[in-house]
Amino acid sequence: CLSSINMLLLEMRFPDQQQQHRRETCHRNKHLEIVFGVASCLLALMQSRRKPSRLFMKNSEGPQRDTVLRVCQESVKRGVQIQRVHQGLCLQASPLGFITEEKTITSHEVKNHRALWLVLDGVQDPMNLGAILRSAYFLGVDRIASSIHNSCPLTPTVSKATGHGGVKAEEGWQVVGTVGLEECSPEFTVMPCSDFKMSRPTLLLMGGEGDGLSPELSQMCDVLLTIPPRRNLHPGVESLSVSVATGMFIQISLFTFRRQVLNV
């Protein structure tokens, strides 16, 4: 009895000439990337922001996970060539680019008083950026903006959007910056994040590893937040990673807003 994936492979009918053309195109194009992992491959296919070329999947005759079968089905729908390999699942596809703010703003977002946009300034580590994006999506952030320069590119480890967040300050949005305790200075007023009350559409600015927020962005902020430690800290562990801190700031901001709404 043929497995579901084997049956899918038999249903694919690429003419020999078309297959040869696909192989030559893949070999010629050195700019293709490899998206790895079942969830990442499925998202890449479903969102249609990358141009998929080939799907590589583990050579196994045993039962396959439903998500793996789903990836194969989506590949077949899009005419993507499936090849058997001996390690896991990955998708060869075109690079993922940024989306500009001007093309994607909706009237709903403009009127959404609970809107929270996350602005990343100089986040360079792809693992940090990937963790930030996942937390932001899970916790309910509406949009994510990133500076194109001096930041991690949208590699297969990372994905999402960009925009020009500074314009929002002129539209009545609250601009909130974040700093570590070691970055606090008399020049700026800094409050514990637990004291912050999100009362209107908000831009949450997060600085990158090491340097934090740029001085230009810090001066734009209505308020700067920090996460106070709950103990005396040893040297070398005085701060959280940017991905952990971002998740905490997002949760606190949205939690305080929802609590205010419930108390009205």
Automatic annotation (TrEMBL):
GO terms for molecular function: RNA binding; rRNA (guanine) methyltransferase activity. InterPro entries: Alpha/beta_knot_MTases (IPR029028), MRM1 (IPR047182), MRM1_MeTrfase_dom (IPR047261), Ribosomal_eL30-like_sf (IPR029064), SpoU_MeTrfase (IPR001537), tRNA_m1G_MTases_N (IPR029026). It comes from the Eukaryota. GO terms for cellular component: mitochondrion. The keyword Manganese does not apply. The keyword Transferase applies. Pfam families: SpoU_methylase. Keywords: Methyltransferase, rRNA processing, S-adenosyl-L-methionine, Transferase. SUPFAM superfamilies: alpha/beta knot, L30e-like. Residues 116-250 form the tRNA/rRNA methyltransferase SpoU type domain. Belongs to the class IV-like SAM-binding methyltransferase superfamily. RNA methyltransferase TrmH family. This is Mitochondrial rRNA methyltransferase 1 homolog (S. cerevisiae).
